[in-house]
Amino acid sequence: MTTVISVTGKGGVGKTTVAALLVLKLVRRGRRPVLAVDADPNSNLCEALGERFERTVGDVREAFERERDRMPPTVDKKLQLEYKLMGVLCESRGFDVLVMGRPEGPGCYCAVNHLLREVLDRIVGGYRFVVVDCEAGLEHFSRRTVRDVDKLLVVVDATKKALSTARRIKELAGLVRVKRQYLVLNMIRSVEEERVLRQGAAELGLEVAGVMPYDENVLQLDIEGRPLTELPEDSPFSHAIDELMGFLAL
Amino acid sequence: MAEEEEFPLDVSPMYEGERVRKEDMFVELGGPTQPGFELVIYEPDAEKVKDGHVELIGPDLTEMEEGKAYPYAMIYKVWGPEIDKDLEPVIERRNHEFQPYIQGYMHLNQRDEIWVRISKSAIKKGLKSLKQIGKKTIELFKSELPFIQKMEALYITDKEEVEKRLEEARKIYRARDERTRGLHDEDVEEFYQCTLCQSFAPTNVCVVTPDRPSLCGAMTWFDCRASARVDPEGPNAPIPKGECIDPIAGEYTGVNEAAVRLSGGEYSRIKLHSFLDCPHTSCGCFEVAGFYIPEVDGIGWIHRGSKVRDTPIGLPFSTIAGSVGGGRQVHGFLGIGIPYFYSPKFIQADGGWRRVVWMASDLKERVADAIPDEMKDKIATEKEAKTIDELKEFLKKVDHPVVKGVVRPVDGKKITEGWVEEEAPPEAAAAEAAAPEAAAAPTAAAPAQQPAAPQVAMPQFPLLPTAPAAQPQIQIPTTPAGAPVKIILKDANITIGKIILKKKEEK
């Protein structure tokens, strides 16, 4: 049984931080192996996890399209894709990272996407947990390049834009298959901020699964470009993630 | 023999697709950092195959270092009274199917790009030798494919030996590819449909044959066959060929039946290798748009993504694509995939490459190796011709086959009359100008026997009637059995004095 958790939100609200910590904590708690999927071309989940990637799924797709006409007629394209995708998987301790990369260029990608979906589905099915850092358009879900979501976490901070993004995501999520949706409040500095956001959540009809405080430790790592593997276990953010996981029964 | 002891690992199809992660692996064999290949060879002399025997050249598992990658070759020899060389690739493909049944053994892909990993837990469970893997694999082959009576394996993990034999293996793969390229429409019993793009183009169905790949360019007959094997009711269901009605145009009873079924009765005939008559339908996914240029009685091509904006008919790719998408048969236009240029039956009903008069320069360069030498310098690009007049000049200059009349290469038959230079009487000229496409409107000058007659009207240079003040008249003969008539107007300015809309009377 594979549980898919996707973490989304407006850019800058800290969803990559939340996603990365979820991956690391799942591994530390023995819920391995975990697949981390970076489905937002603007963030870098891989780096946050202390890993480096070389090539993305998008690169594989493009290379495939370019070589398509030169492939011998009896080469099984699905098996080829599986081999190439295995090659871009970034393997680490307890978790692997798959970077989706940029979306498609012009042209017809129906056939290759059809194959990609099947291959990705199989790869994803080999993990106990999958944490997807996805951009607010939920593109990879609407294109069905990642399978259905068990838990969708929408991360918001105290800005008005974040909440309106959350509303949009909620609508979009209705179109792809999401089992449960939650709001995660991030970078909270005061009780007042939390109260306002909880009210916004209630208006949206979304449950608040966790409240992440503004944490200097996180900021410091970000400034220094250091991975979140170095976040101390006893930092406020780390504790808040533990509580979030408790709430979600992970 | 030590190998007589029981095989220590569980073997079952449920382990198929099992992947071994790097931190769980004992060793990697082949893969992206080491050479690897698998090969099945048919040995005609049964005596030369030692059934069940496995030999190993190079280090075995007990001599390998944990976490490292090693070269890997698996060469099998098979014998059976029903086996021949053509079955080699069919049997070989099953290696990828059977080996993953072994718990703790991952196997990806085929041929000279295989990736194998053996897990630490497999070693813990007692796996000591690759020979055990070899023996178990042979057992699986023989039990699943009983026509294999004798099978022997040679596994190699020595780098030099693997690399040496890799060269030989590649030659064999290439020879097989050549034989496959020699597979044509007449050699198979089934074609395949493809509806993979239906989420974007709901009414399109491609008929994919060995000589006609899909119009999106991505699906060959082999791809469809592989997909149909996995899901015969899926997007690539088989289409039985039926009887061949016309081998040159590529018309088959089975395909026509499928056309009726898949188009909801809208179309009943598809000529696979014809541009002008009962062409295959086009949806918006096509890679290349072909357009008929009646003034020169030739065909032009431009592809999606071409940098060229000026086609001689004055429309860029996007406009052409927009007007012929939707899964329709649109006479005078055809959407194809780039691989079709390489087909030996490329629009052969209409003369193949001898009917091609223009191509976007970047397209022409891309498929240059598909163009026969005799035509290479006779096909214009936007560099030689941007307008119809420039095109006519160019084609006359190079003496393109359309000028004097095209002799079809496939059967030597002359299928067009060439350009007629003299001026014809205005009515005839106007009629010609109004109905240049085949299988469409019957012309006054050459009354067709029936609407579906594949006769291409001889185009005249369009004449602007100067002297006669009378309006050009077009006689449309009545058609037998009230068959519908299609009227195609080209370069026509239409002014409407009045439109009357009337509700159809209820009977």
Report what the structure shows:
The complex is a heterodimer of chains A (250) and B (507). Chain A is an alpha/beta fold. Chain A has one domain: Rossmann fold. Chain A is built from ten helices and eight strands. Chain A has an eight-stranded mixed sheet with strand order 3-4-2-5-1-6-7-8, with helices on both faces. In chain A, helix 1 crosses helix 10. The radius of gyration of chain A is 18 Å and the shape is globular. Chain B is 23% helix and 16% strand. With 507 residues, chain B is of the alpha/beta class. Chain B has two domains: 2-181, 2-Layer Sandwich (Bifunctional carbon monoxide dehydrogenase/acetyl-coa synthase(codh/acs), Chain M, domain 3), CATH 3.30.1650.10; 186-404, 3-Layer(aba) Sandwich (Ribonuclease HI, Chain A), CATH 3.40.970.20. In chain B, the strands form five sheets. A four-stranded mixed sheet of chain B has the order 4-1-7-6. The relative contact order of chain B is 0.08. Classes of the chains: A alpha/beta (250), B alpha/beta (507). The interface between A and B is large, with 33 and 43 residues.
Strand order of the largest sheet of chain B: 4-1-7-6
CATH topology of the largest domain in chain B: Ribonuclease HI, Chain A
CATH class of chain A: Alpha Beta
Domain count of chain A, please report it.
1
Strand content of chain B: 15-25%
User: What is the architecture of the largest domain in chain B at the second tier of CATH?
Assistant: 3-Layer(aba) Sandwich
Largest interface: A-B, 33 and 43 residues
N-to-C SSE series of chain A?
EHEHHHEEHEHEHEHEHH
Number of strands of chain A: 8
Architecture of chain A in CATH?
Answer: 3-Layer(aba) Sandwich
Task: Categorize the overall geometry of chain A.
Answer: globular
Number of domains of chain B: 2
In CATH, the homologous superfamily of chain A goes by the name P-loop containing nucleotide triphosphate hydrolases
Percent strand of chain A: 15-25%
What's the helical proportion of residues of chain A? 40-55%
Biggest sheet character of chain B = 4 strands, mixed
Supply Rg of chain B.
Answer: 30 Å
Oligomeric assembly: heterodimer
Rg of Cα set of chain A: 18 Å
Structural shape of chain B:
elongated
